[in-house]
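== Sequence, structure tokens ==
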Amino acid sequence: ADDTQIYFSFDVNGENIDLSPIQRCLSEIKEWMTLNFLKLNDEKTEFMDIGYYVSPLQSLDLGETSVGQLSITPVLKAKNLGFHFDDQLNMNEQINFVSQICFLNL
């Protein structure tokens, strides 16, 4: 149940979005894990562009981003240590989740 989080910053006003730093980093992580007899779970690896702006990544047709044989899926919401959050960090996902749990327990 070990999770790794990697943070990158992007120029939201940039014309060309360069995903190569992310691809390089994940490639190095995957290589390091292989050398240390660990495995990067391809099915659970995903990335999210977080910010209050409209993501420049949404204008790209990413589908999946490939790093060697690893395919990374862009997501708009995720769960981290039991906390549900979305790409805008407005807590709507967490509030909806907690409300559903409370309603079920009434």
